[in-house]
Design a protein that fits this description.
Elements: H1 3-25, H2 28-44, H3 54-75, H4 96-105, H5 109-120, H6 125-132, H7 136-154, H8 157-160
Helix pairs in contact: 1-2, 1-3, 2-3, 3-6, 4-7, 5-7, 6-7
């Protein structure tokens, strides 16, 4: 991969990579750091990465970096940092996208990632499997389970409105 191909990869994929990470972790600063780390790793391996495979390399690297940070943060959570919802508080939502975001946040990590890659980023099952190191069948199962959960969580549109 040449320097020009690297710069082209930055131009073409940085926004999509950032959106993917941001939808997964919901923290702009951490998302920016993960994207930057991904491009830094690409730069360090620029001689070993084929320009045709740069998109998959970037998304795979970002995915694994994000998972590593999530796992690291889970080990460092303190009880003082937890905010518990008040008893008797009702959630009266009028925005369907807010309800959907809340539902996606409640998904297990791997289900949330594959649903975001499939439904928000438009990857096919095979590409998602390559990015996440899952088989195509596993990807389909996780997406199915996530969609069943989302359907149950959201319920009927009349209940939401």
């Amino acid at each position: 991969m040449t320097v020009n191909e690297y710069n082209q990869a930055v131009d073409e994929y940085s926004d999509r990579l950032y959106r993917f990470v941001l939808k997964s972790i919901r923290d702009t600063h951490k998302a920016e750091d993960i994207v930057q780390d991904s491009y830094e790793k690409l730069w360090k391996n620029v001689e070993n990465v084929n320009a045709d495979k740069v998109k998959a390399y970037l998304f795979t690297t970002a995915y694994h970096t994000m998972i590593d940070r999530i796992r690291k943060e889970k080990h460092s959570v303190y009880a003082d940092d937890l905010i518990l919802p008040e008893q008797g508080q009702e959630n009266n939502y009028t925005d369907l996208s807010e309800i959907l975001r809340e539902a996606v946040d409640k998904l297990p990590e791997v289900q949330r990632i594959v649903v975001l890659l499939r439904d928000y980023e438009g990857y096919n099952y095979k590409e998602i499997g390559e990015l996440t190191h899952l088989s195509e069948a596993q990807v389909k199962v996780y997406i199915y389970r996530a969609r069943v959960f989302l359907k149950k969580y959201i319920g009927s549109i009349e209940a939401v409105a």
